[in-house]
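Possible regression after last week's pipeline update?

I re-ran a chain I had predicted before the update to compare outputs. Posting the input and the new output here so someone can diff against the archived version. Not blocking, just want to make sure nothing changed silently.
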Amino acid sequence: MVNSTATELILHSQFIYPRTGTTLVEHLSDCYKQLTENSNDFECIKSSIVKQTIFISIENNDEYIQIKQKLLICATDFFGFTPSISIIPQAPENGLLALELTKINGLLPSNIIYRQNNNNSWLIIKKGELKMLFASGFSNVVENSDVLSQSIQAFKQLEEILIAEEMEFSDIVRQWNYIEKITKNYHHNGTTSQHYQIFNDVRSKYYEKATFSHGYPAATGIGMDFGGIIIDILATKSGKQCSVVPIKSPVQLDAYKYSKEVLAQNNTMNDFCRTTPKFERAQLLVTPNCKCLFVSGTAAIKGQQSISVSSIEEQTELTIQNILSLLSAENLQKKGINVTNAAILYQLRVYVKNRNDIHKAKGICLKYFPSLSIIYLVADICRPELLVEIEGQAALG
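New output (post-update):
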């Protein structure tokens, strides 16, 4: 059994919102300025940051391409190196920009390795037997590029990074999949294919190269207005001191067991069509210094069917109940995890389809989690009828 005593949680995130500025670059600079203002040992804080996610509000892909480069330069100038970074076109609740910093406390400079190739930069952490990889794969957003070629490009970039680090797709513990216009249908030669289904089929094609003996990654598949395909991953490799435990939901069917009934169409691939989304409802990462539970993107789904309620409040309530069932002591014990209490959420991302609904979803979330660190983002959900999706991280109680 996995013993949860003496848990020391070291993986956590911080959300920073700009106070001043009129442009996105000025907003990001102000977020970085807040880091220096709030720390007496800034170098220590800087070395603890292993990943950055910058959420922005933009109008089109041309603007995204231009501002992405400016924001990357701003980040590199501030840190003195190219960090593991993703720039996601999802409008934050506060307006134009929000910064999420993923940190690991207690790292020494000797624990961190920064690497890059022609397409990407990534970060490696080595601590004892544990090796952690934080990386992103991006599609090349150009005019007339389609979601099939974009998905293949993003997965190919990730595969190159994994091979360089002597890892496989099965070493991924947590994956974030950002898909432009996720439920949009792509029309080609008289056929119709959904963006998310195309992405899922490309994912299946790459995943079949590995054996997922510890389950698929915890994952989120979420929409963006622009930006093509962006994939973020956390992968780990270790000796006997590290384990990964997939957590199944007591109320939701495993996504990779969905029937064809709930899958959309994909007529763009002759060799790989209509496969299921490959992710676990949650994954527990156990290392000598960390016991972190990654909760996948969760919505108002029971079994494999969306719940037939149109209210954002009801969908948010049902989504939270799904998460709490997943994290309950009874459910964790079924996986051989030695706990007496439910896992404790300490961070959430809440994706809301319609900006005007954010305050309604926020009201429900605050009722359950009044003191939790939560970021609210405007994003399309993977099924047209769904209005909200929630993901998070938790610690064992």
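Follow-up from reviewer: compared with the archived run. The chain is about 25% helix and 35% strand. Marking as no regression found.
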